[in-house]
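Researcher: Here's my situation. A collaborator sent me these components and asked whether they could plausibly form a single complex. I don't have experimental data yet, so a predicted model of the whole assembly would be a useful starting point for our discussion.
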Amino acid sequence: AQTVTQSQPEMSVQEAETVTLSCTYDTSENNYYLFWYKQPPSRQMILVIRQEAYKQQNATENRFSVNFQKAAKSFSLKISDSQLGDTAMYFCAFMKLSFQGAQKLVFGQGTRLTINP
Amino acid sequence: ETGVTQTPRHLVMGMTNKKSLKCEQHLGHNAMYWYKQSAKKPLELMFVYNFKEQTENNSVPSRFSPECPNSSHLFLHLHTLQPEDSALYLCASSQEMRRGAEGYTFGSGTRLTVV
Protein backbone atom coordinates (compact mmCIF):
# COMPACT_ATOMS: atom_id res chain seq x y z
CA ALA A 1 0.00 0.00 0.00
CA GLN A 2 1.12 3.51 -0.73
CA THR A 3 1.54 6.13 1.97
CA VAL A 4 2.06 9.87 1.74
CA THR A 5 3.63 11.90 4.53
CA GLN A 6 3.60 15.65 5.00
CA SER A 7 5.77 16.43 7.99
CA GLN A 8 4.84 20.11 8.36
CA PRO A 9 1.38 20.49 9.93
CA GLU A 10 1.54 24.29 9.71
CA MET A 11 3.67 26.94 8.03
CA SER A 12 3.52 30.71 7.97
CA VAL A 13 5.37 33.21 5.78
CA GLN A 14 5.15 36.86 4.82
CA GLU A 15 3.58 37.96 1.58
CA ALA A 16 5.99 37.91 -1.38
CA GLU A 17 8.28 35.37 0.27
CA THR A 18 9.05 31.94 -1.13
CA VAL A 19 7.87 28.88 0.79
CA THR A 20 8.51 25.17 0.29
CA LEU A 21 6.14 22.46 1.46
CA SER A 22 7.55 18.96 1.97
CA CYS A 23 6.08 15.64 0.94
CA THR A 24 7.49 12.13 0.97
CA TYR A 25 5.81 8.97 -0.17
CA ASP A 26 6.35 5.26 -0.03
CA THR A 27 5.59 2.95 -2.92
CA SER A 28 6.95 -0.05 -4.77
CA GLU A 29 5.38 1.16 -8.00
CA ASN A 30 7.53 2.54 -10.80
CA ASN A 31 4.82 4.34 -12.76
CA TYR A 32 2.67 6.82 -10.92
CA TYR A 33 1.54 10.42 -10.65
CA LEU A 34 1.95 12.93 -7.86
CA PHE A 35 -0.28 15.90 -7.17
CA TRP A 36 -0.53 18.94 -4.98
CA TYR A 37 -4.03 20.10 -4.10
CA LYS A 38 -5.03 23.33 -2.38
CA GLN A 39 -8.05 23.61 -0.09
CA PRO A 40 -8.88 27.22 0.86
CA PRO A 41 -11.45 28.08 3.56
CA SER A 42 -14.15 27.74 0.91
CA ARG A 43 -13.43 23.95 1.15
CA GLN A 44 -13.03 23.55 -2.61
CA MET A 45 -10.12 21.22 -3.37
CA ILE A 46 -8.24 22.68 -6.31
CA LEU A 47 -5.50 20.99 -8.31
CA VAL A 48 -2.32 23.06 -8.10
CA ILE A 49 0.19 20.96 -10.00
CA ARG A 50 0.87 17.39 -11.07
CA GLN A 51 3.96 15.37 -11.93
CA GLU A 52 4.34 12.18 -13.94
CA ALA A 53 6.92 9.92 -12.35
CA TYR A 54 8.44 8.98 -15.70
CA LYS A 55 9.28 12.61 -16.42
CA GLN A 56 12.55 13.84 -14.99
CA GLN A 57 11.74 17.49 -15.58
CA ASN A 58 10.07 19.15 -12.62
CA ALA A 59 6.57 20.48 -13.28
CA THR A 60 5.90 24.22 -13.04
CA GLU A 61 2.68 26.24 -13.09
CA ASN A 62 3.31 29.97 -12.89
CA ARG A 63 4.45 30.65 -9.29
CA PHE A 64 4.20 26.98 -8.33
CA SER A 65 6.92 24.45 -8.98
CA VAL A 66 7.91 21.08 -7.62
CA ASN A 67 11.17 19.39 -6.73
CA PHE A 68 10.62 15.76 -7.63
CA GLN A 69 13.29 13.38 -6.39
CA LYS A 70 12.17 9.92 -7.47
CA ALA A 71 14.97 7.96 -5.83
CA ALA A 72 14.39 9.74 -2.54
CA LYS A 73 10.59 9.51 -2.98
CA SER A 74 10.31 13.19 -2.28
CA PHE A 75 7.91 15.68 -3.89
CA SER A 76 8.12 19.20 -2.47
CA LEU A 77 6.08 22.21 -3.60
CA LYS A 78 7.66 25.65 -3.93
CA ILE A 79 5.49 28.73 -4.00
CA SER A 80 7.29 31.83 -5.20
CA ASP A 81 6.18 35.41 -4.56
CA SER A 82 3.50 34.15 -2.18
CA GLN A 83 0.16 35.95 -2.13
CA LEU A 84 -2.57 36.29 0.47
CA GLY A 85 -4.80 34.11 -1.69
CA ASP A 86 -2.34 31.25 -1.29
CA THR A 87 -3.50 30.81 2.31
CA ALA A 88 -4.99 27.31 2.40
CA MET A 89 -4.48 23.68 3.34
CA TYR A 90 -2.16 21.96 0.90
CA PHE A 91 -2.38 18.24 0.27
CA CYS A 92 0.15 16.06 -1.44
CA ALA A 93 -1.35 13.02 -3.20
CA PHE A 94 -0.19 9.85 -4.96
CA MET A 95 -1.88 7.93 -7.77
CA LYS A 96 -0.73 4.61 -9.19
CA LEU A 97 -0.74 4.39 -12.97
CA SER A 98 -3.50 2.02 -14.02
CA PHE A 99 -5.30 1.78 -17.35
CA GLN A 100 -8.21 -0.12 -15.90
CA GLY A 101 -10.77 1.03 -13.44
CA ALA A 102 -11.02 4.18 -11.42
CA GLN A 103 -8.03 6.21 -10.32
CA LYS A 104 -7.40 6.19 -6.59
CA LEU A 105 -5.70 9.09 -4.89
CA VAL A 106 -3.88 8.60 -1.61
CA PHE A 107 -3.50 11.83 0.35
CA GLY A 108 -1.07 13.12 2.95
CA GLN A 109 -2.23 14.73 6.18
CA GLY A 110 -1.99 18.23 4.78
CA THR A 111 -0.01 21.40 5.59
CA ARG A 112 -1.84 24.51 6.70
CA LEU A 113 -0.13 27.47 5.01
CA THR A 114 -0.78 31.02 6.14
CA ILE A 115 0.45 34.00 4.15
CA ASN A 116 0.71 37.08 6.34
CA PRO A 117 0.40 40.65 4.99
CA GLU B 1 -17.83 25.99 -9.81
CA THR B 2 -15.73 22.98 -10.77
CA GLY B 3 -18.46 20.96 -12.41
CA VAL B 4 -19.04 18.75 -9.37
CA THR B 5 -21.96 19.88 -7.24
CA GLN B 6 -22.67 18.61 -3.74
CA THR B 7 -25.83 19.21 -1.74
CA PRO B 8 -26.56 20.10 0.94
CA ARG B 9 -23.62 22.26 1.88
CA HIS B 10 -24.32 21.83 5.60
CA LEU B 11 -26.29 19.15 7.41
CA VAL B 12 -27.09 18.68 11.08
CA MET B 13 -28.76 15.42 11.98
CA GLY B 14 -29.65 13.44 15.04
CA MET B 15 -28.34 9.95 15.59
CA THR B 16 -31.72 8.42 14.75
CA ASN B 17 -32.29 10.41 11.56
CA LYS B 18 -31.99 9.26 7.98
CA LYS B 19 -30.56 11.68 5.46
CA SER B 20 -28.85 11.60 2.09
CA LEU B 21 -25.96 13.48 0.53
CA LYS B 22 -26.04 14.13 -3.19
CA CYS B 23 -23.25 14.59 -5.70
CA GLU B 24 -23.69 15.46 -9.36
CA GLN B 25 -21.18 15.92 -12.17
CA HIS B 26 -21.63 16.80 -15.82
CA LEU B 27 -18.01 16.53 -16.86
CA GLY B 28 -18.42 13.23 -18.67
CA HIS B 29 -16.31 11.48 -16.06
CA ASN B 30 -16.81 7.77 -15.55
CA ALA B 31 -15.62 7.39 -11.95
CA MET B 32 -16.98 8.94 -8.76
CA TYR B 33 -15.71 8.83 -5.21
CA TRP B 34 -16.72 9.59 -1.63
CA TYR B 35 -14.06 10.79 0.78
CA LYS B 36 -14.34 11.63 4.48
CA GLN B 37 -12.27 14.53 5.77
CA SER B 38 -11.91 14.74 9.54
CA ALA B 39 -9.85 17.24 11.47
CA LYS B 40 -6.16 16.39 11.65
CA LYS B 41 -6.54 13.18 9.64
CA PRO B 42 -5.75 12.42 6.02
CA LEU B 43 -8.63 12.22 3.61
CA GLU B 44 -10.15 8.76 3.89
CA LEU B 45 -11.42 7.06 0.76
CA MET B 46 -14.84 5.54 1.45
CA PHE B 47 -16.30 4.32 -1.83
CA VAL B 48 -15.32 4.16 -5.48
CA TYR B 49 -17.71 3.79 -8.40
CA ASN B 50 -16.59 3.19 -11.98
CA PHE B 51 -19.23 3.26 -14.71
CA LYS B 52 -21.81 3.21 -11.87
CA GLU B 53 -20.49 -0.05 -10.46
CA GLN B 54 -19.01 -0.06 -6.98
CA THR B 55 -15.39 -1.12 -7.21
CA GLU B 56 -14.25 -0.34 -3.69
CA ASN B 57 -15.72 -0.20 -0.22
CA ASN B 58 -12.95 0.81 2.14
CA SER B 59 -14.32 -1.02 5.21
CA VAL B 60 -16.97 1.61 5.71
CA PRO B 61 -19.63 0.91 8.39
CA SER B 62 -23.00 -0.13 7.03
CA ARG B 63 -24.65 3.01 8.43
CA PHE B 64 -23.19 4.63 5.29
CA SER B 65 -24.90 3.34 2.16
CA PRO B 66 -23.81 4.62 -1.27
CA GLU B 67 -25.90 4.64 -4.40
CA CYS B 68 -24.83 5.40 -7.97
CA PRO B 69 -27.82 5.32 -10.35
CA ASN B 70 -25.73 6.56 -13.28
CA SER B 71 -22.27 7.90 -14.01
CA SER B 72 -23.36 11.47 -13.26
CA HIS B 73 -24.96 11.03 -9.87
CA LEU B 74 -23.74 9.65 -6.58
CA PHE B 75 -25.57 9.52 -3.26
CA LEU B 76 -24.52 8.70 0.27
CA HIS B 77 -27.41 7.56 2.43
CA LEU B 78 -26.93 8.03 6.16
CA HIS B 79 -28.75 6.36 9.02
CA THR B 80 -28.14 5.91 12.75
CA LEU B 81 -24.89 7.82 12.61
CA GLN B 82 -22.57 8.42 15.53
CA PRO B 83 -21.07 11.74 16.68
CA GLU B 84 -17.65 10.61 15.40
CA ASP B 85 -19.12 10.55 11.90
CA SER B 86 -19.20 14.34 11.97
CA ALA B 87 -16.86 15.46 9.19
CA LEU B 88 -16.62 17.04 5.77
CA TYR B 89 -17.75 14.60 3.10
CA LEU B 90 -16.20 15.23 -0.26
CA CYS B 91 -17.33 13.89 -3.58
CA ALA B 92 -14.99 13.72 -6.57
CA SER B 93 -15.01 12.49 -10.13
CA SER B 94 -12.34 11.51 -12.62
CA GLN B 95 -11.79 10.38 -16.16
CA GLU B 96 -10.26 7.10 -17.26
CA MET B 97 -6.50 6.89 -16.96
CA ARG B 98 -5.90 6.29 -20.65
CA ARG B 99 -7.03 9.84 -21.26
CA GLY B 100 -4.35 11.10 -18.94
CA ALA B 101 -4.14 11.26 -15.18
CA GLU B 102 -5.75 14.60 -14.52
CA GLY B 103 -6.53 13.73 -10.95
CA TYR B 104 -9.87 14.41 -9.43
CA THR B 105 -12.39 17.20 -9.74
CA PHE B 106 -13.87 17.80 -6.31
CA GLY B 107 -17.12 19.20 -5.07
CA SER B 108 -17.24 21.71 -2.22
CA GLY B 109 -18.27 19.07 0.27
CA THR B 110 -21.06 18.61 2.78
CA ARG B 111 -20.23 19.60 6.35
CA LEU B 112 -22.05 16.98 8.45
CA THR B 113 -22.67 17.37 12.16
CA VAL B 114 -24.21 14.49 14.10
CA VAL B 115 -25.82 15.51 17.38
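Model: Some features of this prediction you could bring to your collaborator: The mean pLDDT of chain B is 90. The radius of gyration of chain B is 14 Å.
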